[in-house]
Write a structure and sequence with these properties.
The protein has 5 helices and 9 strands. The protein is an alpha+beta fold. The chain has a 7-stranded mixed beta sheet with strand order 2-1-5-4-3-8-9. Strands 6-7 form a two-stranded antiparallel ribbon. The protein is globular and about 55 Å long. The two termini are about 30 Å apart. Thiol-specific peroxidase that catalyzes the reduction of hydrogen peroxide and organic hydroperoxides to water and alcohols, respectively. Plays a role in cell protection against oxidative stress by detoxifying peroxides. InterPro entries: AhpC/TSA, Peroxiredoxin, Peroxiredoxin_AhpC-typ, Peroxiredoxin_C, Thioredoxin-like_sf, Thioredoxin_domain. It is found in: Cytoplasm.
């Protein structure tokens, strides 16, 4: 597993669904450079059991992210058309209707590979044949990217282990506290606590 903390976030251009249903052919995180922090997160699959709980939770916190000047962007191996269908499906039917932040399509698994969150790996035979071993979907990876495009925090969970919205916000607050005051944040630090010079 690669550690991307301290490095520039891998660049990509890919199809995405924005504003709850509009498909754009070339979405990129570069549009946020110099303007916003980015929470870029991966999830295993659309129309699954656990994933909607995460995507809907991030949407419910949209005001908190906006207050912190954070753009939330999701990504899975599903196509933009599957994303669009999922976004138009009511929550009571397993959909995520109401989610407004962008969902990036990565059916080639290239973005997952570049962020090193692809569950499984490619096997190459002596005669040049390629096979894939594993579920071929994204682990639950989250990457906090600063305004300069540098990854400042990452966490990657196995497929059955969901993430914490509280911890996600805490890490954003810690990064912004450090940037504003130059103070490191000790264990279990929360917004309003003292930092360490």
């Amino acid at each position: 597993m690669s550690v991307l903390v301290g490095q520039k976030a891998p660049v990509f251009k890919a199809a995405a669904v924005i504003n709850g249903g509009e498909i754009v052919p070339e979405f990129s995180l570069e549009q946020y450079l110099g303007k916003k922090y980015v929470l870029f997160f991966f999830y295993p699959a659309d129309f699954s059991a656990v994933c909607p709980t995460e995507l809907l939770a991030f949407q419910r916190l949209s005001e908190e992210f906006e207050k912190r000047n954070v753009a939330v962007v999701g990504c899975s191996g599903d196509s933009q058309f599957v994303h669009q269908k999922w976004l138009s499906t009511p929550v009571k039917e397993g959909g995520i209707e109401g989610v407004q932040y962008p969902l990036v399509a990565d059916p080639s698994k290239t973005i997952m590979q570049n962020y090193d969150v692809l569950a499984g790996d490619y096997l190459y035979s002596d005669n040049g044949e390629v096979a894939f071993r594993g579920p071929a979907m994204a682990y639950r990876g989250s990457f906090l990217i600063d305004k300069e495009g540098t990854v400042r925090h990452q966490v990657v969970n196995d497929l059955p282990l969901s993430r914490s919205t509280e911890e996600t916000l805490r890490m954003i607050d810690a990064l912004q506290h450090f940037e504003e005051y130059g103070e490191a944040c000790p264990i279990d630090w929360h917004q309003g606590d003292k930092g360490i010079k």
